[in-house]
Write a structure and sequence with these properties.
The protein has 440 residues and is mostly beta strands. It has 5 helices and 29 strands.
Length: 440
């Protein structure tokens, strides 16, 4: 009797296990199966899956089939979704793109049907890494706020698919700390970058371009490097340093101010011969190196008493720029100092903000450069004969350049309260000189 009863119990249990309610869903794994990954490049990968929707009594067109994928993490909380298209049968393929290089992704197949979502097991793949194809050369045109850096790029070193190569970019990164040049956990640069070029647009395998670093701080140490990025992930190159110029200084005992101009030229803080910015300083005929009492053609040393007979800087000798021995700034202030060119005057006019004001009872212009540094140009007029003309109403300062059309004239900056420009006038007039300085 005991054997019969025991066998009966066993059969009853087996029947209970073998019977399944019609309402019980298929196991998740049997509906959506995650396959392997292949063709993994820097930014692309192909992943496979199996969707056994026939087990649900459905066909693929009645379901949403695809993969979810995300950068590998513990939670997998906000994955991207790729919906497979044109699925026939159970096998499907998903071609993922716009991935981050050198990054591990997790993914899983899914099937959405009849209000339910079935998931496969999580799998993973790691995209390929890439190397830096750019390097820095020496810097140049260093000012208080800017520097130029030559960057060499070798596009033949690019790796990955053709689609990957279209996402390569090169540039210069810079920071006030070395650590600031290192990418964050996502591989992205968080420091400042400048002059970014798409590698696909470079015409040759070996190409050099100039990166312009601006909005720097005066007298500051900067770390910089060339870098290569692909789809936002950056690989820095060798790290270099530079020190921006101080905003102001002295040379040979004379003060200069860096206004942050494109040329890098610095302007004297006072007129030649002046003890302060508000003073006129000396008045000089163009090409003469000392002030005098009267200013006429008769006592102008570079002519024979008349405007029609220039003995130097004329049509015959072809000289158009003052030589050092005729440059009053160089002669009186020493090496590094000279009179400004007409191009530098135009730069001062166009790149700076000119504000008419009065300082220590002297009217004139406060000229403020792109870097917020400024100089004061007093309106001290000019001299003709022994007479001072337009004193208190206009600025007159010689350039080092001869007129392009008439050798008896030279360029100067002229500025009244209502107008300003780079003009030309007779060389014998006595005008102020505001020297310029070019630091090493």
């Amino acid at each position: 009797m005991r054997r019969i009863a025991f066998g009966t119990i066993i059969m009853a249990c087996l029947l209970m296990v073998g019977c399944k309610s019609d309402d019980e869903p298929e196991s998740t794994g049997s509906i959506a199966v995650t396959g392997n990954a292949s063709n993994v490049s820097l930014t692309e990968a192909t992943v496979y899956g199996n969707a056994s929707v026939a087990r649900l009594g459905l066909v693929a067109s009645q379901c949403v089939i695809g993969v979810e994928y995300d950068v590998a993490s513990d939670d997998f909380s906000s994955p991207a979704t790729y919906v497979a298209q044109g699925v026939s049968g159970s096998l499907f393929t998903c071609n993922l793109s716009n991935l981050l290089p050198n990054t591990t992704y997790q993914y899983r197949a899914y099937v959405e049907a009849q209000g339910k979502v079935y998931y496969g097991e999580k799998e993973s793949f790691t995209t390929q890494s890439f190397g830096n194809i750019a390097s820095c050369e020496s810097f140049s045109n260093l000012t208080t706020r800017t520097a130029d850096v030559a960057v060499s790029v070798n596009t033949s070193l690019m790796t990955g698919t053709e689609a990957d190569k279209k996402l390569y970019f090169c540039g210069v990164a810079f920071s006030e700390s070395e650590a600031g040049l290192y990418p964050n956990e996502e591989g992205r640069l968080v420091c400042r970058v400048d002059t970014v070029f798409a590698a696909k647009d470079m015409p040759y395998d070996s190409y050099t371009f100039t990166a312009h670093m601006d909005a720097l701080s005066a007298g500051t140490l900067y770390y910089y490097c060339a870098y290569t990025s692909c789809n936002g992930v950056a690989v820095p190159g060798s790290i270099h340093t530079l020190n921006t110029r101080e905003g102001a200084g002295q040379a040979n005992g004379y003060g200069w101010m860096d206004l942050g101009l494109s040329s890098g030229v610095c302007w004297a803080t006072s007129n030649l011969g002046a003890a302060s910015p508000e003073e006129a300083g000396g008045y000089y005929a163009w090409g003469e190196t000392k002030p005098k009492e009267t200013y006429t053609w008769e006592n102008y040393k570079l002519c024979n008493g008349t405007q029609s007979e220039m003995v130097r800087y004329n049509e015959s000798d072809g000289l158009t720029v003052l030589s050092a021995e005729d440059d009053a700034a160089t002669v009186n202030m020493g090496t590094g100092w000279r009179m400004p060119s007409n191009q530098e005057i135009v730069e001062l006019l166009t790149e700076c903000r000119w504000t008419w004001t009065t300082e220590k009872s002297v009217p004139g212009y406060r000229v403020t450069g792109p870097n917020k540094n400024s100089i004061f140009l007093p309106s001290v007029g000019y001299r003709d004969g022994s007479e001072l003309l337009r004193g208190g109403s206009s600025v007159f300062c010689w350039s080092r350049n001869l007129s392009n059309t008439f050798s008896a004239k030279a360029f100067y900056v002229g500025a009244s309260q209502s107008d300003k420009g780079c003009e030309e006038d007779f060389r014998y007039y006595g005008q102020s000189i505001r020297p310029v300085y070019v630091p090493d």
